[in-house]
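note to self: dont lose this again. the chain is below, predicted strucutre after it. 243 aa total, dont forget to put it in the shared folder this time
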Amino acid sequence: MNAKGRGVTIANVTRAPRTLCFDIGGTGIKGLVADVKGKPLSERVRIETPHPAIPKSLLRVLGEIHAQQPAFDRVSAGFPGVVREGVVYSAPNLDPSWVGVNLAGELTRICGKPARVANDAGVQGMGVIAGKGTEIVLTLGTGMGFALFRDGRYVPNIELGHHPIRGKKVYEDLVCDRERKKHLKRWNRRVQFVLSVLEPCFNYDHLYIGGGNAERLSFKLPGNVTVVSNDAGMLGGVRLWDQ
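---
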């Protein structure tokens, strides 16, 4: 300090923002604090998703995770459904009562910091994509998530998992966790089938597979398909603030 014009003046140093990143899934809810480069600054906390997964119960879990985290400046969350401007438009693997909930507003209320929310596959993609050309993210968990990126920019609101693929069956009917538990080899064949359909439709440069069931794949993947860490769903929340 140089109150009388003598000595050395110390400039104010602004700390880079820290992000509390949530990954909301049909079976588990995870959270941690990361720095601006996506490096975890706290241990990951995971709590099982309550059932029924109504807003009141799930928000309570988010509050419990928040209470176990160190200081942060902003909040992000990946949500399993269509989200527009922080408002939930669909939640097929949670509960219909989520439709119309301003989740970003609720997180701001709970955490006391500004919050952003996007589809969980989109947030996961933000944590792993190269940012060049057409890139796709599939998440294999309770259901099937999908995200499309073009030159690093997220294309929101595409719910491919609920698009018909075989008769009346949608993508998610074929590769959801319920089908994986019934017959793992058949589930793997179905994932292969999904990949064979997506490749000529999107002509992607790279496809990333995440989610809790990605590690259960037992077939050889093409050179432009990569399995990524499930934690990318949280660390991508840092990049959500750059979109």
